[in-house]
Amino acid sequence: MPAPSTRIAIFASFSGQGGVERMLAHLIQGFCDQGFAIDLLLVRASSAALEQLPESVRCIPLRPAHTLLATFALARWLHRERPPVLLAVKDRAGRAAVIARALARTDTRLVLRLGTNLSAALSGSSLARRWLRLAPIRLLYPAIETVVAVSEGVAADTAQIARLPRSQIRVIRNPVIRPQLAELAAAPSPHPWLVETKSIPVIIGAGRFQRQKDFPTLVRAFHLARQKRPCRLLILGGGRGRRAVEELAIGLGLRLGPDGDLDLPGFQTNSYCWLARADLFVLSSAWEGSPNVLTEALALGIPSVSTDCPSGPREILADGRYGPLVPVGDSGAMASAMLQTLENPLPARTLKQAVTDYTQTASSLAYLDAMGLRALPSST
Hints:
The structure is a single chain. By secondary structure, the chain is an alpha/beta fold. The chain has 2 domains: 4-175 and 359-379, Rossmann fold; 181-353, Rossmann fold. The protein has 15 helices and 13 strands. It has helices at 19-33, 71-81, 91-104, 118-121, 127-140, 152-162, 181-185, 215-225, 242-251, 272-275, 292-299, 313-316, 331-343, 348-353, 360-370, and strands spanning 7-15, 37-46, 58-61, 85-89, 109-114, 146-149, 169-171, 202-206, 232-236, 262-266, 280-283, 304-307, 325-326. Helix 3 (91-104) links the parallel strand 4 (85-89) and strand 5. Helix 1 (19-33) packs across helix 15 (360-370). The chain is globular.
């Protein structure tokens, strides 16, 4: 059993199949590889990402199963265990951690990971809703020792909305690229369109069917692009918005399914073997923090097109050097960029250079530094 000083406490909610859960699982693996033991305090535990965790991780369920309502349970745990540092994941967890530490009367260092451009997510909200969301942030965030943002855009947005000094915020890239990436990408072809001998290029989009991902713009752009050249579109993911996308596609005259033009095969545990065989990846999001799937596509050497949404794509694509950036919601510009990239793709080696900072090891070491920890001698 590791000594108490080598344990890291993490407060998070694992629910669904989102990128936050996957990135946290990668990060935890990175901490374990560096010799640390993990206490994972869970508000919810209903995610396939939990299955990726090392067996040594100690999962501690908190009740009730709501982040803010679990504050008192977290306070009791902090008072009893008195960990040197607590990493909170996402806004609600950060706010709850500040209150819990005050109740526990401990000197536990708080580090908060933020992965969303909150201003963009709240755009269009009523003044009352914005105030209800921002007032607690401005009240509680100053008590957090370090806020970790997943991109420069998220850092700038957080500094503005939380009224924090920029020195309190660190940018640490997501642990997207892990050692198993090549092996997972080499898994057998998952779809009849993705065979090596394919004659029609395949475009892939991926994410949850919700407003943020704006798949209707991608479908409209695909409809325009295929009028100029044959191509097919796969959108990986689940969610309640899927039916609306299907109806839009049918209304545009697109044929659905493996025998058609557009297929929606649902959420995929291993998306890498899909991406690795694509001719083009397209991110159509209205906003992001740092889009993991775009990073994954580039790491696999797949040409990519993205909206210039806040925030992350412009940083990842280096102002368009590694792939076109198009205005949010502009299906015409997206279609033109898709056709241009299919016609003149960048070499895989060049694309992979764009994301060399997004490795599991580099990210975990940077988080350890932000938490005031160092890799243990036995791990080197």
